[in-house]
Model the fold of this input.
Amino acid sequence: MIWLHYVQIKKLPGNEDIKLPQKMSELAAGFDVVAALEEEVVLKPGQRTLIPTGLAMAMPAGLEAQIRPRSGLAFKHGITCLNTPGTIDADYRGEVKVLLINLGQEPFTIVRGERIAQIVFQTVPAIELTEVAELSETVRGEGGFGHTGK
Ligand SMILES: O=c1ccn([C@H]2C[C@H](O)[C@@H](COP(=O)(O)OP(=O)(O)OP(=O)(O)O)O2)c(=O)[nH]1
Done:
């Protein structure tokens, strides 16, 4: 069964022309989001920039939204999200922004309305942290960071 979550989304003033995040196929996990830039931005190799989406959201408690790169932009141009996955908290009411970085060799131009990233919604488990003096024992113990070899 598919549980439907209701997320409110608002176009910020001056962004009435901006498309709402859109699934590009029936079962796509992500909603593509577009750049709400007033003027085009040229991202030089190694440069990062915060791109506005012109949108704000309100999710029910227990959801988060992740801002993830688009694989096509990453593969063809080296454009990715620096903080991937970016976290949008359910109580955040500011403009959703996308932190892009150009890891490619060429300058990359971003224009208004271009699909720059995707939003994937996730449920967040309710967690309560309990401080303890001793942790339960496991076979792995403190092994990590490649302790099982290649
Ligand atoms: O890619 C992102 C990441 C974050 N945000 C917004 C929504 C999120 O709820 C808020 C805070 O993000 P985060 O917790 O990652 O940032 P922080 O560096 O811990 O800042 P803060 O002290 O404002 O929480 O910024 C975005 O718009 N895009």
About this structure: DSSP finds one helix and eleven strands in the chain. The mean pLDDT is 97. The chain has one domain: 8-123.
